[in-house]
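Notes to self after the call with IL:
- keep both proteins in one doc
- input above output, always
- annotate only the second one for now

Protein 1:
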Amino acid sequence: MELKTFFDNFETMAEAPNGVQKLREMILQLAVQGNLVPQDPNDEPASVLVEKIKTEKKRLSKEGKIKRFKDLPAISTDLFPWRLPENWDWTRLAAIGLVNPRNDVSDDIKVSFIPMKLIPVKLGENVQFEERIWSDVKQGFTHLAEGDVVCAKITPCFQNGKSAVLRNLVNGIGAGTTELHVFRSVSDEILADYVLLFLKSASFLNNGVDVMTGSAGQKRVPADYFAMRPFPLPPTNEQKRIVAKVDELMVLCDDLEARKKQSRQTCIQLNDACIDKMLAAREPARFNKHWQRIHTNFDLLYSQPENVNKLRQAILQLAVQGKLVPQDPNDEPASVLLEKFQALRERTVEEGRVKAFKSTNMVMTDETHFKKPAGWEWTRLGALSISMTNGIYKPAKYYSDTGVGCLRMYNINNGKINFENLKRMELDTGEIEKYRLHKGDLLVNRVNSRELVGKAAVVWDLKEPLVFESKNIRVCLVNNTILPFYLNIFFQTSYVKDVFQGTAKQTCGQASISQPQIAGIPTPLPPLNEQRRIVAKVDQLMALCDDLETKLQKSQKRNHQLMEAAVVEMLAFEKYAV
């Protein structure tokens, strides 16, 4: 990819997942590879600058101002990570400055003290500091001075890119955490800001991680890696051009990031407002108006994954409010359905198939979430179930690779039964009969975290006998009287989740709900035919949401691939040979 193509696609690549951060990394790497700004053949070659610094260090050494000077061995060409432009030179930080130098100042002067927490990650942020007396910090801390470039050496601070140029220190002197490597230039022709770009580049950080030593959580980058790693040095004038260009592009990245964040927030807020108004609408005309607004702005509103999830929840809530499909006055009312169900339940009790179920109190007006549509009834879940049963409890040793499949709380996800990692149990015939699941049962999770307790799914695809564990409750329904899939839709709504999260008993970090709590949930019951229409419509709209998510994923994948291709082509470099 040519540099022009890179800049032409700058904003497009920013749309990739973590795109702006990737752009920042690319800019830094392009900078130290000599690919960000054009070279000027009139610039004094960097090799001349290296010789000047060598002469200066010899002088300072002779005057006793620095340690005894000695020539460093030449860098093997095998260690060069990439090919440099003309007039650049491979050198080392140890060759062009001082690494981890010491200060010699009066004990009573005020100085800056810099703990690790005050060293920024982001390029361009100023280093903050505390004020101390030199005698208090000169021992046991890293010595620092105005213009030094510091780099964290311990994990995870190193990987996070904690590094900075020190400026505006009190009296030009400071001390700080011992977890720093320090570079101090001996020449104004080495720009501290350019050195900082190198310390924040992907090549320096990635290879530094590979050579870290120490135990887990306490790994550090060796001093030799910092001091002796090949350093790409441009001519002084090009250093200035590079730093200026990086500053310009980082401002552009900040702007892109802010615009992207604002666009995202605006999109989310607009979607929230549209959905809230649609859910709150009481008259069909107002509901249709707000739904039309969503439909008109569909591409805008659902360009964010979290908005698609909110659309799913809105669909579920509209479904159980009676707003998703029209009512049909010819449908048999839900009140008649309840009477039929009561007769069916009483007959099962008389036949001895189930125990007598406790009477269920009427739903009071202040318990309802919305005004019921014509033909609907507010009832309680207990009035719609024949029985509820907690699952079988067996210690872990009873699970095996053979036997009857047992659905655990982990097998209930997003309103569906997930058969991955299905555990099995060796059970006797009586246990199997007591806990066996049947087509149309509603399985409700009764013990979990507060956020997940009460998740539910319909048991439907029974290719083999299945039982259920004790952290779940089986709700037995009459399939031709109350559609289990309609109740499953109801259980996925925020109404039910809010009830469980508000009433669940909390013990040792786990929330739990009981059969009476489940039986007592106020439930909006539509006529049977409307239940069928609701379930069909929800299935249709959830498929639409699936398509939306697929399109978003494909779009993000394309942007990600473009970014990765640019990284591979423009930033190709070999790992530093240790």
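Protein 2 (the one to annotate):
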Amino acid sequence: MTGRDYRRRGVTTTLAAHLRQGDAFGLGWVALVVCAYLSPALKDGLSFGPADIGAQLSYLTYVPQVIFHNHLNGDIITQSVAWNTLDWLAVHHGQLPLWNDYSAAGMPLMLNFESAPFSLPALVGYLFPLSASYLVVVAVKLLVAGTGTYLAARLVGVHPLGAALAATTFMLSGSLSGWLGWSVSGPLVWSGWLAVGALLCWRPRRRGSTGVVVLALATAFAVYGGFPETLVLLAIGMTSLVVIGGALGALTGQVDLRGTGRLVAGVVAGIALSAPLWLPGLEVLRQSARAHENGTGGLAVHGLALLLAQGYYGLPTAGSTWTGPANYYEATTYVGIVALVLALVAVLVAWRRPIVVALTGTALVCVVVVYGAPVQGLFTDLGAGAVATQRMLPVLAFCIAMLAGLGMEGLSRRWHERSVQAKLLASIVGLAGALGYLLFSAGSVGITPAELSARRHALFWPAATLAAMAAGLALAVARTGRTNRANGPVAQVSTTTRSACLLLLAAQSAYLIFSGVGINSYSSKPYPVDAAVAMLKHIVGDNLVALDGPNPADVTRWTGTGIYPEANIGYGIRELAIHDPILPPAYLRTWPDQAATTRAGLGNNVLVPSVGSAALARFYGASFILASPGRVPTGAVLVTRLRVALVTYLWLYRVPGATRFSFAAGSSANVISATHPGNSTWQLLVRVPKPSSLTLRVTYFPGWHAEADGRSLAVHSVDGLFVGVTVPAGTHRIVLSYWPGGLGTGFVMAVVALVALALGTGAGTARRRRQRRPPLP
């Protein structure tokens, strides 16, 4: 080896070490920002979610004089945390989380998509105590979003500081961080990793198998992320990015056309890996209320103001009022003014780069989908009315974040060019003009002085940041000019440039942290148990409790009589109430008073029937009725009264003759015993003198199987709602189990995909080793 070779190796080694140090700093910054964002948990408690809202929804748990920290994010505590609790308990008992037995006669758990038991954040959350599990889920979502964006930025040539800025911008953007507690964000956090996989597939002279594996895993985890509607929007955004970028890259020779095959292979493998969810889940979706839902999607164009200033239309937290389009979570868009300036710089400086054109084009697609009024109607016409188009905003944030990273890269590399400095100034001036317009129009007709004050306050920090950037630009231009005159145009003040980039990163991170950190809620106990709840739980045990509230005219209206549906999971009390997007319309169609189900079939996913008689309670298998004041269910026997706030007492009644498993009236057959060994399994011992029909008051879905002493029994629906079987004569042990059709096939597909990925990766590695092996003499 020559001296020149040694010198070249030394330079390469030094560069690699420098990049490793830079990446350690960049990824460390991402982790530090996540910790800072979630730091209130150290003070308020490890339970992520609005326990204050959850407690106030029920007379049983009501606490007087509580001021909601955030009055708008109740679904986190009533659904997301509750389902995560069921997932965690099932896994820690060695079971698949297939069935939720706490909602009415039961509901699919895994196949409602939103419980997301196989998502990567949930898998990590299982490793922690239940009290911290959901906080870990949120933290992992942030890390997935941040690390994916960081690596995507690095792959397109952005150095660590710019990549850290891109990562921070995406993961703490208002449109993504606001949804962290919801399953809405589950697929969206994988935007960066999907881009990483696509880039690795496209790039020539790279390990193609790595791109296929990354893309397959990212696709699979995006599906497992738990929200099919945002998965559709994510697919539209990523397809736009890949098509535009791939086409331009192919024209300029910057991408390997064989990457198309690798990209397709990665997506197909990801679809196969996620088959255990979507293959049986699609059947559940088709027969659910979700299939008939019509999204209230799309935003008015004036909602774009929120891109520049968080809180321009107020906030959902105490002391503020939201006055913007839709609600806060649907409309908030902020990404930080620093990111917007740098994104504009990237467009102006590097507009010839395919990746810049692709990101810009995809951002425009997102704007059209979100703010174009006819687009939501198009989705509805295509049978996808449940897709609320404004939930594509995080994809827009991802594009802006990546452009911001590229903009910082352009500034750090070409700062000495006068044209770059001019374009930076133009970006600052353009955004200053936009802020000026918002300030001028802030006092529109009809707003209150408090609302006007909130708008002006929201514009202060973006305006101050722009002023500071303009002053810094002027100072830097003057200093660069002096340096160039002293040392020649080749001289670079790299230390000053890096310091400026670090300052921009710090300013951007601080703005995003302080903008979003106060939106979230934390507590020490998500479902605090008081005396009334403890007494109710002690009396009813595992029996189903029906509710008799003042809503006989609308069984989709919550009245506060029991515990809000799905939140009851956290208290371990089974209720005849459901709040689930896959609520079967059969529950509404079989309700005896059709006038009380006026919203049946229109996508309504709440059922809180007012059960005013023992006969109706027996139909559902409810052994108890909890009644509000003035409601006396006929035929029921009073057990006790529960002292509660607001209405003084709730009244608990027992339902004579109620049972979950029963033979047809007049049959001499009887159920000797019934046990529930798993979340989706029941075992019954029955004595049947002659063949008889057995009704199991478990919600009927395709996928229920029954056996009598190991011999299969045909399963049918009873009243269109429950599971029924015909049992032959004799004494039998009946086993009822839920294993949806397609679930086994889905697992086989996933295993085959894993094996194929492993074999493909191994074959590629072996081929590269043979190519590197020196020829024999």
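Annotation: The longest helix spans residues 449-487. Residues 1-13, 488-493 have pLDDT under 50 and may be disordered.
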